[in-house]
Design brief:
Elements lengths: L7 H20 L1 H39 L18 H13 L2 H15 L10 H14 L2 H8 L2 H10 L7 H4 L1 H4 L1 H5 L1 H37 L5 H48 L2 H24 L3 H13 L11 H4 L1 H21 L6 H33 L4 H6 L3 H14 L5 H30 L12 H22 L3 H34 L19
Length: 544
Amino acid sequence: MHGPKIDKVIFWVALIVILCFSIPLVIFPAEGKAVLDTALSWTTKTLGWAYLWFTIAVFGILLYYALGRFGNVRFGGPDAKPEFSLPSWVAMLFCAGIGASVMYWGTIEWAYYYSGPPFGIEPKSKTATEWAATYGLFHWGFTAWAVYCIPTLPLAYLYWNRKRPVLRLSAACAGVIGDRAASGIPGKIIDVLFMFGLIGGVGTSIGLGTPMLSAGLAELFGLERSFAIDVVVVVIWGAIFGFSVYSGLEKGIKVLSDINLWLIIFILTFTFVFGPTIFILDTFTNSIGLLLQNFIEMSFYVDPITKGENFIAAAGEGKSYVDAGGTFPEWWTIFYWAWWIAYAPFMGLFVARISRGRTIRELIAVEIIGGSLGCWVFFAILGNTSMFFQLEGALDMSAMVSDGQAPEAIIATIVAIGDRVLPLGIPLLVVFVVLAFIFGATTMDSSAYTLSSVATKEQAEVSEPARWHRFFWAIALAVVSLSLMFAGGKDSLKALQAASVVVALPLMVVLLLMTASFMKWLKEDYPEAGKTRISIGTSPGRDD
């Protein structure tokens, strides 16, 4: 016996697809970037509305689950006990779902909106400043975490209640497409789409976190940020990942997540106490008011007038609509929703694995409310502090971001926070860099765990994927991330955005199939849920 065996069809098809995506970006970076730009432009301009409607529908479905008759269904049966304590469970869930990206965007996202605000607002005006502090909360709030949560429910129910020792999207679609299709070619296609989507989504996360860490290392060691340092960052992530792999899920990811939680608390507390505390509280309070008052408008905002004007202008210059200028929702909201969609199946698989003993209502509440609040703390403290430095005149964050120096702007913010008290900028930066490294390693670890699980044959009982298999997919994640950064060059953000938006498109269909399957299973297992509670560890009427 040599441990769990790989599913050769899923493994090799996924590998071939990923290589076909990555290799051309490295060999032909300029051409690859042009293709990504065209794909991004076509998708956002033609199908941007679909991403908006999808996310709103997902949010509504989760409200139905949480407030409806199935909210008390417990994963693993009515007597199931949680595998992890509440703090560890929340930490693993949050670190896997967000990673170092929240440190990147939480600190500097406002600067993009400050210079290019929505709704036709004058750039760098007072109104633009208020919306700049608000839109990050929207993009990292209820809707984002609702998208993360929607695949978790069918996967956790299949795994813990229907006793299928497999974590695959294809199996979670079986309620609609049937067991035969789920285990056949249609199921293989679904699983390969998931793996490609996850690598695109995680590649975006790693691709954003890497330059930030490179800038941090460059500041600490007096170097100039370069692609070579980016490679060093990924190698260090691999070393931390190696420790986690050989420690297993319980000791590896859990320990890293717990360490992360304490480092997060330290940095955020330090910044809040010694930073512009009143400005942080005032701006966050104002942003919550703006968000709650305008949530519906922001959710459906497509800016059709500006979009039409851009189309007319492009036509007048003899260009196609794909070459027309972009709008705020195309560049930001649609990108974010696509990024969450691309990442969502991974979150579903990973969170399903760690959610034994939790109820449907508990899981939805923790993901949507807890996840949103966790992200908002970063934006409120780090983002508003960074904005304060801009308004105070201490640092010109907006200019740095416009010059493609967003990673350097983040590092400058952290150093400035430390130096407000005593010359503590460098020590605080060291803590920040360590935190970002562990964040990234946790993301890489949990992603590789999920990828290897999907590409492993179904076993008679639950078992972790082989260690070499997890290492392999971690390397694949690193290769895709580096290829996207290499192709994008200084403007790597656009290449990373394109990867997320394009790979998310087919996954929307898969997520809808999973949702329909979940509802079918609940109705089968709880035919009279409002009248008589049926206790299930295994499903009624099934032979297990």
